Amino acid sequence: MRDRRWVWVALVAAPLVVSAQTAPKDITGLSITPPEVTLRSADQGTHVLVTGTTGDGERIDLTAAAHFAPAEAPAGQIVKLGSDGLLYPVRQGDTKVTVTAGGKQAQLVVHVGDLSKPPRITFIRDVEPVLNKAGCTSGTCHGSAKGKNGFKLSLRGYDPEFDYEALLYDLSGRRFNRADPARSLMLAKPTEQVAHGGGLRIEPGSRYYNMILRWISDGVPFGNAAADRVEKLEVLPGEVFMHGPDKSQPIVALAHYPDGTVRDVTGEANISSNTPEIADVDANARVKGVRKGEAALLVRYEGKFVAVPVTVLNPNPGFAWQPLPQNNYIDELIDAKLKRLKMQPSPVVDDAEFLRRVSLDLTGLPPTPEEIRAFVADQTDSRAKRSRMIDQLLARREYVDHWTLKWGDLLQVSRRYQGDKGMWEFREWIRDSIAQNKPYDKFVYELLTARGSSYENPPANFFRVTRSAKVSMEKTTQLFMGVRLVCTQCHDHPFEKWTQNQYYQMAAFFSSVGLKPGFQSGDEIVYDKREDNEVKHPKTGRVVAPQYLVASLGAPPIPGNAERREALVEWLTSKENPFFARAIANRMWSYFLGRGIIEPVDDIRASNPPVNEPLLEALTKDLTDHDFDLKYLMRTIVNSRVYQASIQTNVWNGDDHVNFSHAMPRRLSAEELMDGLALAAGSRINFPEVPPDTKAEEFPDPHVGRDGFLDVFGRPARESGCECERRSDVSLPQALNLVNGRTVADAIADPKGRVAKLILAGSTDRAIVEDLYLAALNRFPTAKEYDAAVSFLKAGESRAAWAQDLLWSLTNSKAFLYNR
């Protein structure tokens, strides 16, 4: 059991100093959390938090430094402090307790109910949580797929009915000794009174031991499934905000039940940090700051989950917010958080850097030297000309090619699944949809409701990839909702609210989708099956009826026929769906800022909270208000100052990687690298599978140039719809390919390439240097770079060879390899 000797609350008949720790002297206010408690059982205690507020608004935990005293004489007889540091009831009645800390006082209201009728101990409410806490249901013990030593329980207790029956009937019920409960195998094993492979799990005579003993003595009641299950889990405080790594804060978890009762379950809850190197939590549920940054506490209890944001501020003095221009609501919401976190954002990049960044992000291609010269020379107001350039890029053919490639990855456009003609038809449908700026909800509706020939109705090719109800559902929820349901096929989600039942209820929407050969060679027809069109639950063998994953306003009734797919997609693409618009807004943000507001972008869950919830809400609302216009959302994002920020940092934001206080360098994709190399070298890299002069961004699927440059640099094979399939890492094979590979060498040495044309045109050394810098790095060289490069060219025996070497060195630099 957890040791709580650092006591949260102390209450006896006379004032008591809990700790020698002293409170700050500038406390201006004191608060008690919760301010009122109700106790109903003599063996169920509770915790209380004491928080002080300083003159500058800082909130400090003072629990361990607080004095507690009864406000009236009988108080000491109504409540008492247990040896575990919890507040326990003594007799029925109401009282108030005066809490003093930092020279301030506050009152705690205590209600004690009738203790003469102790609540019945049940398996659901009392015993299962103990088994979970003791680790009996963990994946390394009896909760593993095959159990342990012949005995199996559900993973983390997600199925109490299964666990109860396993305990009751396994070994013919010999786990319980009704005549002598203390000698029951269920107690003897975890206390090691008999040999136990899992070791000591429960101390003899402890509260957990006595609870199980009493439960066995009472006849092992299962309990009421409706009344004994946790209705809501509450965690106090709801947010942890520490003004430095040396601070700490205790956490209290409260379970709310349908009958209105509230139980302190801090000792039984599983509490962990998603970033322990920033904020860690100890065995006593006290969060401790390690270094400045942000983390989230994940609190789990009996199928309920709560994420508590934790912020550890920079303790260094001297921060003074320096406001920067704000172009739209994105900047306002980012700045609001950065100011609170004491992070000064970086200013915007210059015009040349902006043009490179936005060109790559919107079209997948860097700007040409001519475009850079013209843009930099334009004396129009910088913000106005940048906005104008954004509109021009969004209108280009290359914009359509770039986003066709992205959606081709996600929807797995590949002749491996659709054959040659099907692949081309599917790609052209995607391309036409992007060229038309088809609203995203309509795009998804057409995709998921498609029927008929995959040649004549190309979105039907989606089902040629998935081919089954389960895979169709998994891909739909992960891609369009950002929800991963894969693990719930076998059991309830261990860290989320999703259940195994919901997995099969959602799969049932696709159970009538069938595939059969078409009339043309290689074609397949998507049709609605009249037989074998049901999904059965693996546990019960019963047919599962379709049910929406979550309820939302305006959700259509679910028909009992093939039209159920239309009902699902209508619900999915609704503005009221809590996941649909949020998922694509987050995904789009990640394409321009290098990471999602929720990361990974296809793993939206309570235990993976957004780094800026107001921003994600605002983007989602803006998207739905503009009828799912993705081009509008892109325009809004790239017009923001946040998007245009420099990668250069300052003393206040240097170690920030999640709050968008500065730009993060992003390695170019495989296609961007190849097309960027072709532009820099003035050469076209041709492939036999496609017409000459086809850019890599235009390649229809991964079979073009397979096993070559593109695959080395992380082009996805389109075997899944996960963003993670495209790799952006840096590896030794990539370095060798750049240094000594034929792709780079042949492009630079092309007799019709950029270097050759500059030499034949009689360009000066300075003109050659400038043109190569603009073509490769998309910026003018600095004065120092001019001098060094010109001296390099003059020292060579062959201007052409040395100019090629200069271009080679530029294309091997980080400034070329990264979108900065």
Main features:
single chain; 820 residues; alpha+beta; 5-stranded mixed β-sheet; 35% helix; disordered N terminus
Structural notes for this entry:
This protein is an alpha+beta fold. Helix content is 35%, strand content 14%. It is built from 28 helices and 27 strands. The strands form nine sheets. It has a five-stranded mixed β-sheet with strand order 1-6-9-10-3. A hairpin with a 6-residue loop joins strand 22 (513-517) and strand 23.
Q: Helices and strands: which structural class?
A: alpha+beta
How much strand content do the residues show?
Answer: 5-15%
Q: What is the residue-averaged pLDDT?
A: 91
Instruction: Report, as a whole number of angstroms, the end-to-end distance.
Output: 52 Å
Question: What multimeric state do the chains show?
Answer: single chain
Residue share in helices?
25-40%
Uncertain stretches of 5 or more adjacent residues:
1-22
Number of helices: 28
Layout of secondary structure:
Blueprint: E1 16-17, E2 27-33, E3 36-39, E4 49-54, E5 59-61, E6 67-70, H1 75-78, E7 79-81, E8 87-89, E9 93-101, E10 104-112, H2 123-134, H3 160-169, H4 185-188, H5 207-217, E11 232-236, E12 240-242, E13 248-250, E14 252-256, E15 262-264, E16 270-273, E17 279-281, E18 286-289, E19 293-301, E20 304-312, H6 329-341, H7 351-363, H8 369-377, H9 382-394, H10 397-410, H11 415-435, H12 440-448, E21 452-453, H13 462-466, H14 469-481, H15 500-507, E22 513-517, E23 524-528, E24 535-536, E25 543-544, H16 564-572, H17 580-593, H18 613-625, H19 630-638, E26 666-667, H20 670-681, H21 709-712, H22 732-740, H23 742-748, H24 754-760, H25 765-776, H26 783-795, H27 799-811, H28 814-817, E27 818-819
Parallel strand pairs: 3-10, 12-20
Antiparallel strand pairs: 1-6, 2-4, 4-5, 6-9, 7-8, 9-10, 11-14, 13-18, 14-15, 16-19, 17-18, 19-20, 21-23, 22-23, 24-25, 26-27
Helix pairs in contact: 2-5, 6-18, 7-9, 10-11, 14-15, 17-18, 17-19, 20-25, 22-23, 25-26, 25-27, 26-27
